[in-house]
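Protein entry
_____________
===
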Amino acid sequence: MADDFRNRPLLVSGFVATRMSDAERGPQVRIRTDDARDRLLLEGELAWVHGPRRQELATVCYDDTLRRGEVSLRDVAGASPSELVRIIKPDLDSHTRRGHFA
């Protein structure tokens, strides 16, 4: 039951697409502190953004100006405003997910 709570979808309320000349660019997910805490995410770490068309790693940034259940994305392909995404902490500890490289 706890996994379902941490994995509930979030609404994309904003999207920023940067240009090559922009000083700050790259995949980023802005999320409320309490929504991030539900997912065990810390500011500055990477998280999977599972959109309707693909998944991508993005840097987590806290933004408490967002409403609960909403996120804002920057340079994340495969998701658009008003779509639902899931933000998931990568599983780097499980030996079963390492495949043949361990």
Observations:
- The longest strand covers residues 55-62.
- Helices lie at 2-6, 33-38.
- The radius of gyration is 14 Å.
- The first helix runs from residue 2 to 6.
